[in-house]
């Protein structure tokens, strides 16, 4: 299997972007060894949305396996959609690496095991000795008692790699990560041509809301954001896209949540000839 992984790594390496190659190189050289006290590092790679964090994480795992630095890995995320996306990325890029899923329906452990943190409270009873833990959207891991830190405490000590676009928390709690292996800002990737340059076009739906926050510096609550998912507001957004179809070209909508995305998709399919798809 190792020879097959090495071959695939060699095939995929030329497709890596320069910042992905640099991030992988720094992680593999600094992120897998314990210090003189036997403490393994907890470090992050910080890339903006759309820069290929899942691709990078998948490649880094495979390359670490090809180099004989790890034999297995636990990939954690806070939502099922992210877990499934990561598993699908591994299947597409490195089908030679066995994949397992640990959730309510499945208790399979592979060379790389994918799980949401909520589903693996008893995972350590089945397997606690991982060579690497990867945490997607790792800004959810605060340096305080929560599901992530409780799980990590139950596992044997091992390196932890975090992937995020936002290396901070809106509630100002500290993260558990003590290193940043590589960080690239969106403006750098825009200048390099990897990301499109955003043009801000304000648009008023004519509606007004009083949204609740989790705290003085926190984000809006999910419950209050649900108020934005209503027929009048969604219709205004669909009308905007139809009226500006030639100007906008291809459109990506960042919805409030999955339900809002499904409602917008249904409107687009019913009212337009746009080829539309839902990605979660």
Plain-language structure description:
This protein is an alpha/beta fold and 280 residues long. Helix content is 38%, strand content 12%. It contains eleven helices and seven strands. A seven-stranded parallel β-sheet has the order 3-4-2-5-6-1-7, covered by helices on one side. Helix 1 crosses helix 3, helix 3 crosses helix 4 and helix 9 crosses helix 11. The longest helix has 14 residues. The two termini are 32 Å apart. The model has no long low-confidence stretch (mean pLDDT 89).
Summarize the topology.
Elements: H1 2-12, H2 18-30, E1 42-46, H3 53-66, E2 73-77, H4 80-93, E3 99-102, E4 112-116, H5 123-126, E5 133-136, H6 147-154, E6 160-164, E7 179-183, H7 186-191, H8 222-225, H9 231-243, H10 245-248, H11 258-271
Parallel strand pairs: 1-6, 1-7, 2-4, 2-5, 3-4, 5-6
Helix pairs in contact: 1-3, 2-3, 3-4, 9-11
Short overview:
With 280 residues, this protein is an alpha/beta fold. It is 38% helix and 12% strand.
Unreliable stretches: none
Look at the helices and sheets and give the structural class.
Answer: alpha/beta
Fraction of residues in helices? Answer: 25-40%
Q: How much is the radius of gyration in Å?
A: 21 Å
SSE arrangement, N to C? HHEHEHEEHEHEEHHHHH
**Overall body shape:** globular
Strand content: 5-15%
**Helix count from the secondary structure assignment:** 11
Main sheet: strand order = 3-4-2-5-6-1-7
Number of strands: 7
The termini sit apart by 32 Å
What's the main sheet like?
Answer: 7 strands, parallel
